[in-house]
Specification:
The complex is a heterodimer of chains A (about 350) and B (about 325). Chain A is α/β, with parallel strands linked by helices and about 350 residues long. Chain A is built from 15 helices and 8 strands. Chain A has one domain: 3-Layer(aba) Sandwich (Rossmann fold), CATH 3.40.50. In chain A, strands 3-4-2-5-1-6-7-8 form an 8-stranded mixed beta sheet, with helices on both faces. In chain A, strand 6, helix 13 and strand 7 form a beta-alpha-beta unit. In chain A, helix 4 packs across helix 7. Chain B has about 325 residues and is an alpha/beta fold. Chain B has one domain: 3-Layer(aba) Sandwich (Rossmann fold), CATH 3.40.50.300. Chain B has 14 helices and 9 strands. In chain B, strands 1, 2, 3, 4, 5, 6, 7, 8 and 9 form a 9-stranded mixed beta sheet that branches. In chain B, strand 3 and strand 4 form a beta hairpin. In chain B, helix 9 runs parallel beside helix 11. The radius of gyration of chain B is 22 Å and the shape is elongated. The N terminus of chain B is likely disordered. Classes of the chains: A alpha/beta (about 350), B alpha/beta (about 325). At the A-B interface, helix 6, helix 8, helix 9, helix 10 and helix 11 of A face helix 6, helix 7, helix 10, helix 11 and helix 13 of B.
Chain lengths: ~350, ~325
């Protein structure tokens, strides 16, 4: 009904980057790590970039603390497995340092309160920095494959639009105009802008507007570097070296979200290369015939249980079918596991469900 | 973190009725990690209130559209209130969305800045402001909730008896509810500050607002709800109601299929029944273990909602869950 399972072995062999996308709570982080593990088992040098703040992945990989630089995970595989946990703030600081015209400019930016807020609150910054990290790792060529776990978000495109959102913020017309007070012809506009900012100051306080203006002043001249970089990152994500894996659970609400993600990706002409459905109910064979009404209460209860579970599995399968009708990508299913993934053994179990038995 | 531990939810010797539960505070915020059934619980809670003769308003802050189908409609929720379901004695369920952009535009209109509201959005200045003032979007939404709550408390004609806020997914929920106190540190003056002061007052007054956490009897959700509960009490100072554990398998004693079914069904069928029974038993055991862990980790009473063995949640399922919730409330310690 939903086609053959995806050949993830082939996918990890031909891709340089795999992006795991999907809404929150569907097991993206574990999926990303299992894909990287599967790649290492197939001889590749793989690095998983995670954004999971719960540190569960570090535990599962047996690493006390994941850092912003890749740490190697030792194990019985022919390839290599590395992992890092994105630190948005540190990564952003590096980007600023790389683009600043002088150390003094970088320092002025670090010290600005508005800048400190950006990495914490501007929606999309985490996504942007994940891509920045991806770009950096890709450029270093240390790894054959980089698997990226994306932050939980409702919009797949947050990931794609994040650099745009930041450069748009940096390009903000109002603030740009404000910083060119002497240019002839803009003076009239500038008066209107001043008035506009005064109105904003009345609502949120003048300190806040002062911080923002200070930030834009400090940032002067760096926008082009940011814009160019954003373009490169976006090109990389749309390049055939990058594969997209859509992760979901089979629950209808999660599938509806996955459909929404897939539609958004399609709008950006990005194809989903594989779908991973986590935590599926087992599909039991139907009974050979309807049981006799005269069966005893204990047996009737057993039949009822089978029907209950089959109803859930059927509903889930119908939901997954709605997804595959829209997204013609092969589907890998990971069954409900008894426990969460705590260690490499658990991760290997997920990898086996995704890839099939080890080579 | 002693407050969590020392609390009993119901006065010793007394029993809480669903109606009393729903009228302890005008605002009940339903919060939980994605995928735990937060919106389903918000719907069941509102339905329970309606069945007790109350007018409940569900406020959806994320702009998802999961509520409609639960009440049998495909209509998309908007900023305008609609009636989604009926209860008893004039009770009803209403719903609306309340996104930050909606709240901001209304705020600016109400504060005599109708003219700049469009420009703020069109020029992207809203992004700059939202970055300059972390939490401002949450404050705007909660400020509007407070406005609804004040109208309800004043008994304004047509105002709801209960406002159920379907909060952003946890992680964000802590941020959402703690943003007001955070903003007080960042913004010294102005109308946004007074808005934040009002929101903090609302959140910290258990007679006006309480938070219901929702989780699943599974490992990660149990860990996360525990963390969220402690953070919410510490950082937002909110009163937590008992925790709702959603999708709990109703206990079922299943016999050995091969023994009780011998000679009655073909062997292959019996093997299928045995496998299904084994799966059920295993999941029940795992859930029981997680419920026990939750009780150890988080000293809050628990209310269990049954797993309904269906993937489609419509009006009959919401009615079943509302009844189950009412029964759990009556049983609270």
């Amino acid at each position: 009904m939903t086609g053959p399972p995806p050949n993830l072995a082939e996918l990890v062999a031909r891709s340089r980057i795999i992006v795991c996308t999907g809404s929150g709570g569907v097991g993206k982080t574990t999926t990303a790590a299992a894909i990287a593990l599967g790649a290492a088992a197939r001889g590749r040098r793989a690095c998983v970039v995670t954004i999971d703040p719960a540190r569960r992945l570090g535990d599962a990989l047996g690493i006390a603390e994941l850092t912003n630089d890749p740490r190697r995970v030792d194990g019985p595989w022919p390839g290599e497995l590395w992992a890092l946990m994105l630190d948005t703030k540190t990564t952003f600081d590096h980007v600023v340092a790389a683009n600043a015209s002088s150390p003094a400019q970088a320092q002025a930016i670090y010290a600005n309160r508005f800048y400190r807020n950006i990495s914490a609150v501007l929606s999309g910054t985490q996504e942007y920095m994940a891509m920045e990290k991806l770009h950096q790792l890709y450029g270093e060529s240390r790894f054959d494959l980089i698997v990226v776990d994306t932050p939980p978000t409702r919009h797949a495109l947050d990931f794609l639009h994040a650099p745009g959102r930041l450069t748009r913020l940096l390009d903000n017309r109002i603030f740009r105009l404000l910083m060119r007070p002497t240019r002839v012809g803009l003076r009239a506009v500038n008066m209107a802008t001043q008035l506009f900012l005064r109105t904003i100051s009345k609502v949120v306080g003048s300190d806040v507007v002062g911080d923002a203006v200070g930030f834009f002043e400090a940032f002067e001249g760096m926008e082009q570097g940011f814009r160019d970089r954003a373009q490169e990152v976006l090109a990389l994500l749309g390049d055939p070296v990058t594969a997209w894996v859509l992760v979901t659970t089979p629950r209808p609400a999660a599938v509806a979200e996955a459909l929404y993600f897939a539609e958004q990706l399609e709008e950006s002409t990005i194809d989903v290369d594989a779908i991973v459905v986590n935590r599926t109910y087992p599909a039991f064979a139907p009974l050979s015939s309807a049981p006799d009404a005269a069966i005893g209460p204990q047996l009737a209860l057993l039949v009822e249980n089978l029907q209950d579970l089959s109803r859930v599995a059927g509903g889930e399968e119908a939901a997954v079918a709605r997804l595959t009708a829209r997204v013609p990508a092969p589907v890998a299913r990971v069954p409900y596991l008894d426990t969460d993934v705590h260690d490499l053994k658990g991760l290997a179990e997920v990898a086996e469900a995704l890839f099939g038995p080890e080579p | 973190m002693t407050r969590l531990g020392e609390r009993q939810y119901v006065r010793p010797g007394s029993r809480l009725e669903p109606k009393a539960f729903c009228t302890q505070a005008k605002v009940l915020v339903v919060a939980g990690k994605g995928g735990v059934g937060k919106s389903t619980v918000a719907a069941a809670l509102a339905q329970m209130a309606a069945s007790a003769g109350l007018r409940a308003l569900i406020v959806e802050v994320e702009g998802t559209n999961s509520l409609g189908p639960m009440f049998g409609t495909t209509d998309v929720l908007t900023y305008r209130e609609v009636v989604l379901g009926e209860g008893k004695d004039g009770g009803e369920v209403r719903a609306r969305t309340l996104t930050p952009d909606d709240a901001l535009i209304e705020y600016l209109h109400d504060h005599g800045m109708r003219r700049i509201s469009k420009r703020l959005v069109a020029t992207g200045t809203l992004d700059v402001v939202a970055t300059a003032v972390p939490g401002i979007k949450d404050i705007l939404v909660l400020g509007k909730v407070k406005q609804l709550e004040r109208a309800a408390a004043a008994g304004v004609d047509g105002a709801p008896d209960l406002i159920v806020v379907d909060a952003p997914a946890a992680g964000h929920a802590v941020q959402f509810l703690a943003s007001a106190s955070g903003l007080l540190d960042a913004v010294a003056v102005g109308p946004i500050r007074s808005q934040a002061v009002d929101v903090v007052e609302l959140l910290r007054d258990p007679a006006r607002c309480q938070v219901i956490l929702v989780t699943l009897p599974e490992e990660t959700p149990v860990n996360e709800v525990t963390e969220t509960a402690f953070h919410l009490e510490d950082r937002a100072g909110v009163q937590l109601t008992p925790v709702i554990v959603n999708a709990v398998f109703p206990p079922l004693e299943l016999a050995d299929a091969l023994t009780v079914g011998a000679g009655q069904l073909p062997g292959a069928d019996l093997a299928t029944l045995a496998a299904a029974a084994a799966f059920r038993r295993r999941r029940q055991e795992l859930q029981a273990a997680q419920l026990e862990r939750l009780a150890e980790l988080l000293p809050l009473p628990r209310m269990r909602l049954p797993f309904l063995f269906t993937t489609e949640i419509g009006p009959p399922e919401i009615a079943t869950l509302a009844d189950a919730l009412a029964a759990e409330i009556r049983d609270l310690p």
